[in-house]
Amino acid sequence: MTRRGRAARRAVLALLAVAVAVAGVSYGQALTAPGDASWTVRTVEWVRDNGGAGLVDAIENWWYTRSAPTNASPSRSDLPVLGAPPAAARPAAPTHRTAAPAPTPMAIPPGITAVPGEGRWVPGRVDKNGVPALYTTFVQPDPAHASVVAGVAWIRASDTAVHLVPGTAQPGGPSWPGDARVAPRDVPGLVATFNSGWRFQDLLGGFYEGGRYSHALEQGAGSVVIDRAGHVSIGAWGRDVSMSQDVVAVRQNLHLIVTAGKPAPGIANASGPWGVPGNQRQFTWRSGLGVDAHGNLIYVAGDHMTLRVLTNALVAARAVRAVELDMHAGMVFFARWVPGRTGAIAPEKLLPAMPSRADRFLRPDQRDFFYVTLG
C-alpha cells in the first residue's frame, strides 16, 4: 500500500472512530435521560431519532404481522382477577341519591366461547355517595384468535376529573410544570392512570396544556379535549371539537378510529391515515380511548390486537367516537386505584400482562399520560 493509501485509510478509520464515539455518547445520553422508560424503549427510540425510523418500521411490520395469536382459549394468567371489590370500594345500596346506571353489559362476540367473568363489569373506586366512578371488565374481541384478551374500563364522567400530564421527553420542548408524574395532592383521589398517544416525532398532531402549545394542533386530527371541569370530549379537531376559553388541554393522535358509533371508513386499509403503512395489521399491544353517548370515558387495551380488532372492541363497548392511543409493549398501560381493607388506595393493572409497574406515573415518566380523580 502506498503512503498516500495508508494515510487515506488512517483518515477513514479516524472518522469512523469519531462517529462511533459520537454515537456512543448520544446513545448513553438516551439511556440515562430523565424519566421512567425501559432500556429497550430508550434504544428503539434512539434508533428512530438517529435516522433509523424506516428500519424500525420495517422490522416491526415484519415481526408483528408474522406473530399471529392462536385460536386457543385465553391463558388464565392473561385474565384479570375478578373477585369482589374491597369493602371500601363496594357500591352502597341504591338510594334516591346513589341510584346511577352501570354500563350496559358487553355482549360476547359471535363465534367466541365465553370464559368465566367475561363481559361482567366489576366496580372500582366509588364517589362520596357510594356510586362507582369506574367499572372494568375483559372480553375476547377477535373471533379468529380466541386467545386475545382486551381489558375495558368505563369511567363515569359526572363523578370524575381527567388530567393530562406532559412527560420528560414527550411532548418535548422546555420543561413543563407538573414534574411528569401524578400530582402528589391528587394521589388520595385517584381513580385511574393510563397511557397517552404516540410520540410526536411519529405523527402529525399537537399538544396543548395549561395555556402552552407543543406542536401545532392539526385540523381533522383525532383529539382528546379536557375542559376546566376535567370532562373529556373526543372528536376530529375543527369539526367535532375546537379551542375555547374552557379548554385546558388537548392531546391529538392520528385520526378518529370510531366515528358516529361505527369503525371509521377504511380502518382495515393498511395504507390508511393511522401511522406508517402496514402497522394497522400488526398483532401487538394497542390501546384506545373513546366516549359514549353520555360523555363517559371508555378505555380499551390488549396484546396481539390489530387496529381493526381494537376498533371493534371500542364499538362493542358503545363508544361513539374514539382515537387510538399508544401501541407496543411498554407503551400501553392502565391501572385502576381502589382502597384496600385499611382504606389506603393501591393500583391494580387492567390486565396482569401489562409490562409496567402497577404504580407507574407516580414517578416522573418520559411519556405524557392521563390520570383520573374523583370529581
Automatic annotation (TrEMBL):
Question: Which residue ranges have biased composition labelled Low complexity?
Answer: 84-101
Q: Where is this region: Disordered?
A: 69-107
Query: Which keywords does the record carry?
Result: Signal
* Signal peptide extent: 1-23
UniProt KW Signal keyword: yes
Q: What name does UniProt use for this protein? A: Phosphodiester glycosidase domain-containing protein
Report the source organism.
Intrasporangium chromatireducens Q5-1
Q: What is the lineage of its organism?
A: Bacteria, Bacillati, Actinomycetota, Actinomycetes, Micrococcales
